[in-house]
Amino acid sequence: MLELLRVRAFAIIDELEVHFAPGFNALTGETGAGKTILVDALHLVLGGRALSDSVRTGAEEAEVQALFRPRDPEACDARLAALGLPAAGAELVVRRTVQREGRSRAFINGALATASQLQQATRGLLDISGQHEHVGLLDAALHLDLLDAHAALGPLRGEYAAAFAALAEAERGRAQLDSDESARVEKADWLRYQLDELVKADPQPGEDEKLAQERRVLAAAEKLRAGALETEGLLSEAGVAKAARRLEEMAAIDPSLSALAQSVRGAAAEISEAARELGRYASRTGGDPRRLEDIEERLEVLRKLARKHGGSLQSALQRREQMKAELAALENHDEELARRTAEVQKLATKARALAEQLSQKRRSAAAGFSQSVVAELRALGMARSELAVRFSEASDGAPEEPALPATAAARKRGALIEGLGPRGLETAELLLSPNPGEELRPLARIASGGELSRVLLAVKRVLAESDPVDAYLFDEVDAGIGGATADAVGRALAAVARGRQVICITHLPQIAVFAGRHLTVEKEIAKGRTFSRIAVVEGDDRVRELARLLSGKPTEVALEHARELLASAREPKRARKAG
Fold first, then answer.
1. In the 8-state DSSP scheme, what is residue 421?
2. The model scores a pTM over 0.85
3. What is the Cα–Cα distance from 8 to 65, expressed in whole angstroms?
4. What DSSP string runs through 318-366?
5. I want to staple 140 with a disulfide (CB 3.0 to 4.6 A). Which of 5, 255, 429, 510 is the partner?
6. pLDDT 10s digits, 452-478
7. How many Cβ atoms sit within 10 Å of the Cβ of residue 279?
8. What domains can be seen in the chain, in order of their start residue?
9. For 358-402, how does the pLDDT look when each residue is reduced to its tens digit (9 = 90+)?
């Protein structure tokens, strides 16, 4: 639920803090007082677009903070962890700032976040249905989602989505392999040319490093030979052998020197051998200009290969193996195509089986979903309405979600992939008949704004148990209704609020009376500046606010009517408690 909202320097709001309660919260106030500005502020903390003109005149920065208490803290923490953000636990704190020049920053539990991360992190915490947002119902692409949510098909749909993605990827690979023959031949020729160069050069792992070391030795051959001869002379002149003989003579007198004499004698032998080895090294070391030229030429060949194939000899060797595999696949085109086609067939069998399960469950759930929504619409003053779900093939769906091609080639492969779309074999659209005798038609062609608002509320009532959203905000979705219908809408909102937090911005007292907490938004002018303030109204203050909504001012008649409305709204509660 949304527990706290703080707004600073946002539009006409200087500084404001709003505490919301569980259950049904109603916000009322005169037009222009700032109610919708609160909705704009909430849009901002949910990742909406930041606009520089939302910064209050005279301020450099606007700030909005919101404190949420997720219904499912573990799921919220998992979502945050996947985004690399700090865990929420029992509380999720979101802060968004907008600067005068239009730049914005977002913070989640104190950590800096992008607008995209903010949208994903707050998904499911608050669902805002504004004055015009019920037009989302006009998007038929969303209707299948509503039906699936009602039928609790989330897990099965997720399994199908994964199967479809794997199938689509495999089909793309198969289609690419089965593409234009001339392109395949051209690529094979190019691979052969590239491989021929590598095969002829025949580079070996670490060859460039070995040759570089040999080049360093050859380049310094004369210096190394002179050094070896000089060192040999120094070792020969060291007199270690003479020292060993002298120590042996002393050890003959004093046996305690025997060990030392033996050590020196061993050292003398090693030094003598080292001197002889240096002599041999000096005799075979010398400049070989031809060999040095060969090494330089070979290193240049290896450098060219490295530059051409990834920047190192190792990457060139890896690319050689990759090109061999690619060429083998092209040269064994028929076998590879058969293998990939078999893979597509296998994946398509699995995807189609899941899609058919989805279809069966959707069609089984459609009638119950329609009946449930119609029952809610009857309670909302649309007693004679009819609603149905019309299914169409996925290939007739939205262009942004194309089905796999229903081509002759697909049919030749058994038609397993024909018509499969990202969400199954079909799309769904809600059809409404608001009055007897009228045929069922798409919502966009028949429903008024008020009817759409009630359809939206009815759908939310039906999805109350399966909808994962923590809280709903309704921004004047009561537009265009009144009287008994408004009373029905108020009771429906109160019923939704028994399972979810509901925040409703309304002008209708028939709706506001059902709220567990009633807040008013007022606009005042001080020192030439406009300010908005918000306060909880209770007792007589609430009665006066309801009277204002009824008649524009709290007359005695309006006050009495307001009390009657409150009493009428409380009667069902007393009846339930008595029962």
1. B
2. no
3. 9
4. HHHHHHHHHHHHHHTHHHHHHHHHHHHHHHHHHHHHHHHHHHHHHHHHH
5. 429
6. 767 878 888 888 777 777 888 887 667
7. 16
8. 1-126+469-536 (3.40.50.300), 201-327 (no CATH)
9. 999 999 999 999 999 998 888 787 878 888 999 988 764 443 444
